[in-house]
Automatic annotation (TrEMBL):
E.C. code: 3.6.4.13
Protein name (Swiss-Prot/TrEMBL): RNA helicase
EC primary class: hydrolase
Limits of the Helicase C-terminal domain: 255-429
Start and end residues of each Helicase ATP-binding domain: 59-236
Example GO biological process: positive regulation of transcription by RNA polymerase I
Family the UniProt entry places it in: Belongs to the DEAD box helicase family. DEAH subfamily.
Gene Ontology molecular function, alphabetical: ATP binding; double-stranded RNA binding; hydrolase activity; RNA helicase activity
Catalysed reaction, written as an equation: ATP + H2O = ADP + phosphate + H(+)
One of the record's GO cellular component terms: ribonucleoprotein complex
PANTHER family, per database record: ATP-DEPENDENT RNA HELICASE, ATP-DEPENDENT RNA HELICASE DHX33
Amino acid sequence: MPAAVATNKMRLFNSPAKHSTPLRKPIPKWVDKARVSGPSSIQEQARQLPIAKGKDALVREIRANDVTVLLGETGSGKTTQVPQYLLEAGLAESGLIGITQPRKVAAISLATRVSSEQGTFVGGRVGYAVRFDEKAGPDTRIKYMTDGMLTRELLGDPLLSKYAVIVIDEAHERTLRTDLLLANLKRILRKRNGDTRGKGKDKEKRNPLKVVIMSATLDAEKFSQFFYKADNIPSKYITALRARRTTSTPHCARSFQIHVDQPPGDVLIFLPGQEDIESLEKSVDLFARQLPIGQPEVIVVPMFASLPGSQLQRIFAATPRGKRKCILATNIAETSITIPGVRYVIDTGKSKEKRYLAGLTGGGLDTLMTRDITQSSAMQRAGRAGREGPGFCYRLYTEAAFNAMAPSAEPEIMRCSLAQAILQLLCLGQDIQELDLMDTPDVDAISSALRTLFLLGALDSHRELTPLGRAMASFPLEPQHARAVIASKDLACTAEVLDIVSILAASSKLFIDATDKRAEIAEARRALVHRAGDHLTLLNTVRAYRAAGADEDADENKEKVGRSARREWARAHFVNERTLKEAKAIREQLCVSCTRAGIDWKTSCGEREEPVLLSLAHGLAQNAALIAPDGSYKQIMGQSVVKIHPGSSMADRKVPAIIYDELVYTNQIYARGVSSISKSFFATLGAFNRREV
DNA sequence: TGGGGATTT
């Protein structure tokens, strides 16, 4: 460990336990009782969850109120049990029970769990709906889904009339989609449950809706206030369904004393970014080699989102007897990936945070900074220890530092680009400035997004949605990318633009960059690099991947051979196959959207590159810069001087003009996803000419 | 010369 970390004060926190004797701190007795009962049926386990005791009272409250806010920590069983209680109580007779989750994996695994508790198959009484995957049928009463999925349903059914109950889970995370849902639920409650109270007869005809908000942090009362204030929507705030208690004991230790002093169990260390992980990996390896004879061997495993899929197997592989796994992870291990066998968590208290700064002229800017985590994150990180037994969390900061942390993260709506959200709301006939949101974004962020939408042609000068804007909103893409797809129709290069845009819309990066293999990687990828820049390099890569093993695909029996040839190709070129697979699924969805919008997605421009770049430039008109006499690049719209990101194929190249996907400010303002474009292109862009309007 | 993490009929 770096000295700075090793000498910091640490705190010892007791974490949740399921069985066996706790290591240091006694586990509260009632938790013990709930967890120690030995092997039993899955239904029996459900009955023993802490929440089960409050079942009747809970159902009574939900029945009596339109909105119920439920505070309960992860593991209290609320997400799996509450929907079943409501089903049993007959609250799903007039419609579905929908439960939203911020993440796809959670929606799927919860549906699977609850299905088996109900003794049915997934897609029967209990189902789920996430992008690219839906298992729900006519018998489905309980549906787990991503919050994005329900937001999409809103566009087609503004009153969500299929649902009798909507449960918003993990509401404290305040994702953009959760916030948009909360605002719309308030509107729906007014419509479906009536403006005035006490007219019971009418109420039944109106198909009333029940809303349950679940939060894991103390700001739960804010949700209750949100629904009650102004509207007097009957809402109830129920406290503390605690599944675990986190107690703290001051504790100083050198970090690797865990390994020397503590019983077996893997160690999970939370760090801000890839750079920190790679440098600590070296230190830990060095430490491991200097261990006295007889000490167990240490296996160091890095973990961050851009790692290739093959690395993931190392994380989930069981630790051999007599060895100890030490996982160095970013925030990815906080919520999205659960690693079995972790008994000790070391929390540095830091994470990287992306924040969007709206620009008044030249689009926006993302900042990426290392910051202190929130108390909510700290508790989540601690909870990652001891999921299968007693566990411990060593916090590398003082209790005072913990108390100084923000209780929970600022809502996403306050720190992201609003262009896509505003466009979707306009399709619903809603104005973001009139919408009753829990937190209202800055007026600058709204004006900036409106300006972007205007430049893209989605809005006219009266802020009215144009037919082009409506067409853009029909794509599950950011407005800039949707604009590029639409532009590709007239430029006859839709196939190529879809290839590029689907990669840009994928969640992880296409290229894998290990610092220590830079020369090898450059050599392997040389044939893929296009001199016009990153967008056409992406296109080359997608095409080459598709071509690898394509011959075998003709024969059904050899399809497997084709798949393994592609996997091998991706590995050899340091390309993330997971990204390519995700992009393929996105592309298929985009083809459906194209057909609906009257765009022939098969139209290809072959090897011509100009139409592709011009289509992209229609979407990225605001993201353009010209070279200055001193060799730097200056934005066309906006005043920033931007530097081409070192990871770009255009780094160190001097061309007259560039377009880029985004600006990221770390130490300097870097343009990422850069292509060279002829200056004369801008003269042909209507958006560019309208920029002063 | 540098890359926290989710999500979309």
